[in-house]
């Protein structure tokens, strides 16, 4: 089966992140098509996914277009029941569906005051009554989910599910804007920031196109609170220790250096996303640890 998924800027499009996680976090291959927000690129791309008006939008192997994240989640769960999009237990599944539906429709103050920005992290953010109310509501529904359906792990309803994919951009907002939440909520945010699929998305977001000034805020900065990675940099010359790109197997054209070692890649994007977070990429990690 071959799927196509249209998305916007990885650094800023929260719904695109949700749509992509519904594939990558559940092991379903997808061809991603990207377009820059607030430009003519997006409507041109969406013309190929008619009648969609927003991203994400999916086209299935049968050429059917599926619009909106909830619809994509349900369609993938139906087509790939083995992937585990929803919990198997009926009680946990009902909780997960309730959470995803509320996230899809609610938390407007959080969306407006704290738009997703994976290229920044601020030490403090001005609080409003409506933003505080949204954070309180998050605490309420997250605690309810754990009490009603949670298991021993970090996720809301047992294993990672659609509900967690839908709250991933919320976790990034809490991280970006240093929003005040409880210790259990901070632990949930930390689990998202460390999730392998999210780390790969953010690595791509850091190097995928120019900054969108709309999302910048004049708040004091701080380091990104996610996991530390291996320090790496792009280099123009050197002798790579690998003979082919660790992702595509193609010929090497671009290089990075880390701890005195030079690794080669087949294009600038493969190299740059790896420089952004080398340990997010299993192909790189396997090569790095093999020596």
TrEMBL record:
Q: Which residues form the GST N-terminal domain?
A: 3-84
Q: What is its EC number?
A: 2.5.1.18
Return the InterPro entries for the record.
Glutathione-S-Trfase_C_sf, Glutathione_S-Trfase_N, Thioredoxin-like_sf
**Matches recorded under Pfam families:** GST_N_2
Q: Which UniProt keywords apply?
A: Transferase
> Which leading EC class covers this enzyme?
transferase
Write down what this protein is called.
Glutathione S-transferase
Please name the source species.
Answer: Rubellimicrobium mesophilum DSM 19309
């Amino acid at each position: 089966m071959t799927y196509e998924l249209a998305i916007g800027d990885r650094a800023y499009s929260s719904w695109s992140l949700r749509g992509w996680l519904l594939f990558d976090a559940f092991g379903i291959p997808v061809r991603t098509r990207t377009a820059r927000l607030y430009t003519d690129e997006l409507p041109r791309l969406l013309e190929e996914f008619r009648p969609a008006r927003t991203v994400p939008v999916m086209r299935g192997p049968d050429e059917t277009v599926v619009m909106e994240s909830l619809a994509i989640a349900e369609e993938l769960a139906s087509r790939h029941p083995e992937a585990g999009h929803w919990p198997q237990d009926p009680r946990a599944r009902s909780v997960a569906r309730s959470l995803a539906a509320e996230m899809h429709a609610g938390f407007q103050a959080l969306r407006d005051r704290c738009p997703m920005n994976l290229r920044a992290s601020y030490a403090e953010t001005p609080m409003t009554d409506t933003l505080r109310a949204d954070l309180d509501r998050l605490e309420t529904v997250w605690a309810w989910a754990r009490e009603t359906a949670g298991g021993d792990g970090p996720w809301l309803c047992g294993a990672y599910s659609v509900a967690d994919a839908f709250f991933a951009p919320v976790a990034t907002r809490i991280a970006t804007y240093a929003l005040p939440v409880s210790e259990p909520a901070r632990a949930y945010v930390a689990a998202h920031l460390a999730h392998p699929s999210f780390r790969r998305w953010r690595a791509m977001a850091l190097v995928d196109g120019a900054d969108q000034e709309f999302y910048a805020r004049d708040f004091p900065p701080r380091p990104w609170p996610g996991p530390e990675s291996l320090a790496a940099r792009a280099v123009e010359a050197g002798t790579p220790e690998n003979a082919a790109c660790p992702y595509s197997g193609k010929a090497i054209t671009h290089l990075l250096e880390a701890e005195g070692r030079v690794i080669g890649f087949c294009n600038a994007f493969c190299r740059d996303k790896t420089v952004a977070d080398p340990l997010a990429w299993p192909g790189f990690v396997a090569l790095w640890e093999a020596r």
